[in-house]
Specification:
Helix content is 21%, strand content 38%. It is of the alpha+beta class.
């Protein structure tokens, strides 16, 4: 069990959160996802795939879960389900880059861009844990009610 999952269980029980009632906030697709998906918005530095038919611009790792990631990118056409995608991100300049390989599960237009859902095939376990913790910390802040008397 990842550390974020243990922390999530403690928060849910201590605050009496109802995960089903908070389904929209947790970004869970209706009855298809087994794990929480955390938003992260990290620029992708390099991407390779047999499914790329056009030039790719402005690619970002949009979210991550225990088994999958979501990318959002400017590309001419959708990716075919089953296509393999490899990409690289960096969290900090001093750290080694993170390489992720996944299989396209779905691809759909979102405005003038495309969202791509990937099942993770290969990724360093420590890097995955770091990304999940980063997303979890962001989610935890969003779940904390504002302090009485604070603005916003």
């Amino acid at each position: 069990m990842f550390a974020y999952e243990q922390s999530l269980r403690r928060i849910v029980f201590s605050k009496g959160l109802n995960l089903r009632a908070n389904r929209d906030k947790l970004n869970l697709m209706e009855d298809k996802r087994k794990f929480l998906r955390f938003e992260c918005s990290i620029p992708v530095e390099e991407i390779l795939s047999q499914g790329l038919n056009g030039v790719v611009h402005d690619v970002a790792l949009d979210n991550i879960s225990r088994e999958g990631v979501g990318l959002i990118m400017d590309v001419d056409t959708a990716f075919a389900p089953g296509a393999e995608v490899k990409f690289r991100i960096s969290l900090e300049a001093e750290k080694a880059p993170i390489f992720i390989q996944g299989r396209v599960m779905w691809s759909r237009p979102k405005g003038d861009r495309f969202e791509i859902g990937l099942k993770i095939l290969e990724m360093d376990k420590a890097a995955k844990a770091e990304l999940l913790e980063l997303g979890f910390e962001r989610w935890k802040v969003e779940q904390t009610p504002p302090h009485p008397g604070s603005k916003g």
